[in-house]
Amino acid sequence: MARSYVAEARRRGLGARRRRIGPIVERLAQEHADAEIALAFGSDVELLISVMLSAQTTDVNVNRVTERLFVKYRRPEDYLAVPPEELEQDIFQTGFYRQKAKSIRGAMRVLLEEFDGEVPRTIPELLRLPGVARKTANVVAAELGDAQGIVVDTHVRRLAQRLSLTREEDPVKIERDLVKLVPRADWHRFPHLLIWHGRRVCDARRPRCEACVLEDICPSSRVPRPGTRGTP
Ligand code: SF4
Questions:
Q1: How high is the pLDDT of residue 17?
Q2: Which atom of ligand 1 is nearest to the CA of 201?
Q3: Neighbouring C-beta atoms of residue 215, cutoff 10 Å
Q4: Which residues contact 1 (CB under 8 A, 6 or more apart)?
Q5: Average pLDDT for 183-206
Q6: Distance CA 220, CA 12 (A)
Q7: For residue 130, what are the CA distances in angstroms to 50, 57, 168, 198, 218?
Q8: Which residues line ligand 1 (CB under 6 A)?
Q9: Cα dihedral across residues 103, 106, 111, 112: positive or negative
Q10: What is the pLDDT of residue 18?
């Protein structure tokens, strides 16, 4: 289970977080100029399916499966034209394949019945699709060009806590804190920046603080300060 850094954030105080958000975004944007969604898709429907399949597995694994899947299933109707068991087999390697197949078929049915087969743009509409929760809706809306919130995954949660941008544990409450701090223009790229920084530098178990561009403004830095005994 991921370690909580909330107690640490509380100890260090949150008063300066508004002043730090600008440098945090700027430095991470320079450091991870290539930060973007790692899922491969060629249409809005493929984006939706990819994000739905990505629950509890890696983006690499999803891309491996969808490379074949998207050749066979080109339109929402195609997911409903095969027996459920066939779709289950086709997405088997992403895990939780029964539930995912059921959600995908349900979502495709609602797309066809209520949205003319097009992926809707707003969070409330996206949440009407079976199997689509807030995180999936946020990712899809942002990738379609209109971020309406900030995606909170395990990396975003950990980094937001370490950087003292939130005191919360619950993803919905963390998102509520982040949207108050991060300028709307950055809502799309901000989670990508934290995700890539989390993967490359701020590892869950062994953050490489000595190599981190945020080291001097991060309350959780483990680099010893002059006059201290070192790691917290
Ligand atoms: S200084 Fe350390 S804890 Fe803070 S963001 Fe960088 S790697 Fe993470």
A1: 73
A2: 7
A3: 15
A4: none
A5: 96
A6: 9
A7: 15, 19, 28, 30, 39
A8: 162-163, 201-202, 207-209, 212, 214-215, 218, 220-221
A9: positive
A10: 77
Instruction: Characterize 134-160 residue by residue with b for buried, 16 or more Cβ atoms within 10 angstroms of its Cβ, and e for exposed.
Output: bbbbbbbbbbeeebbbbbbbebbbbbb
Ligand 1 centroid to Cα of residue 131, in Å, is 34
**pLDDT number for residue 224:** 85
**Considering Cα of 219, then 225, then 228, then 232, what sign does the dihedral take?**
positive
Strand blocks (E) in the chain: none
pLDDT > 50? residue 69: yes
The residues assigned a catalytic role are 135, 153
Of the ranges 5-14, 98-107, 116-125, 174-183, which one carries the lowest mean pLDDT score? Answer: 5-14
Task: Ligand 1, residue 222: give the atom nearest the CA.
Answer: 2
pLDDT value of residue 89: 98
Predicted confidence (pLDDT) per residue in 118-167, tens digit: 999 999 999 999 999 999 999 999 999 999 999 999 999 999 999 999 99
Ligand 1 centre to CA of 24 (Å) is 11
Give CA–CA dist 224/232, Å, rounded: 9
| Total-model pTM | 0.85
Instruction: Give the chain's end-to-end CA distance (angstroms, integer).
Output: 20
